[in-house]
Write a structure and sequence with these properties.
Radius of gyration: 17 Å
Strand order of the largest sheet: 5-4-3-2-1-9-8-7-6
Oligomer: single chain
CATH superfamily: Aldolase class I
Largest sheet: 9 strands, parallel
Structural class: alpha/beta
Number of helices: 12
Strand content: 5-15%
Shape: globular
CATH topology: TIM Barrel
Order of helices and strands: HEHEHHEHHEHEEHEHEHEHH
């Protein structure tokens, strides 16, 4: 069982939901990234999604686009991101780390070389936004050969045929994009999300995490009541962006702790039913 599956299984047995924060590797600067990752865990994160900076993102909103730009200005590459994960593993051998990004940096390194290096650095899952499941059989086989979970996105407009393909190929969890738009969008229809999750669970047997549009404790609490995991990205990236340098770790930890507390309230309410 992978670290991701083991973590989600443990949380399920505890009647808790996973908190999955997203941060962009190298933002605001490479020197504090590992400390920031450890801070996320200490504040209540269960899995970390580490964004690989990319110059031409298709799904990221303005905040995450700016974070990639800041990291790229500091010349942060995929090789550097893997080095950050390796350093994180020197102190933390239990928290799953998922790389989230785009195909170009992986293809530049080479699929097999990337998977081998990612495994050596302690990466547990990879979500590549622009690898559709219809064209990912070989890619998934390579990841599975190196015991790395292939994670896929589904959205409100994903057709049933693709959902069935994702159900066969994905491991760890499936990431449900709750909005018809990019990251950081402000509106979220909770009733629609709940309805869609019910439909997805008819085909998908592994846990489903929900991301996009989760910007406060109340929304995290609501999503924790219906999903297996809550993914928060733009809210944390914005906190990094606007915090004074010497307050970044404290401010991000405060936000994550608030989300954790709100989600645990939802879990307690469900367990008490």
């Amino acid at each position: 069982m992978s670290r991701i599956s083991a973590t989600l299984d443990r949380l399920h047995q505890q009647h808790k939901k996973a908190l999955i924060p997203f941060i962009t590797a190298g933002d605001p600067e490479p020197a504090i990234m590992v400390s920031l990752m450890h801070g996320l865990v200490e504040a209540g994160a269960d899995i970390i999604e580490l964004g690989v900076p990319f110059s031409d993102p298709m799904a990221d909103g303005p905040a995450i686009q700016r974070s990639s730009e800041r990291a790229l200005k500091r010349h942060v590459s995929l090789k550097d991101v893997l080095a950050m994960a390796r350093e994180f593993r020197e102190r933390d051998d239990s928290t799953p780390v998922v790389l989230m990004g785009y195909a170009n940096p992986i293809e530049a390194m080479g699929h097999e070389i990337f998977a081998q290096r990612a495994k050596a650095c302690g990466i547990d899952g990879v979500l590549t936004v622009d690898y559709p499941p219809e064209e990912s059989q070989e890619w998934v086989a390579i990841l599975e050969r190196w015991q790395i979970d292939p994670i896929f996105l589904v959205s409100p407009t994903t057709p049933q045929t693709r959902i069935e393909q994702v159900a066969k190929m994905a491991k760890g969890y499936v990431y449900y994009v709750s909005l018809r738009g990019v990251t950081g969008a402000p509106t979220l229809d909770l009733d629609e999300v709940a309805s869609r999750l019910g439909q997805l669970r008819a085909s998908i047997s592994i846990p489903i995490g929900v991301g996009f549009g989760i910007r406060d404790n109340a929304t995290a609490r609501a999503i924790a009541g219906i999903a297996d995991a809550v993914v928060v990205g733009s809210r944390l990236v914005e906190e990094i962006e606007r915090s004074p340098h010497d307050q970044i770790l404290t401010n991000v930890a405060r936000v994550v702790a608030g989300l954790r507390g709100a989600m645990d309230e939802a879990s307690q309410a469900i367990a008490g039913r």
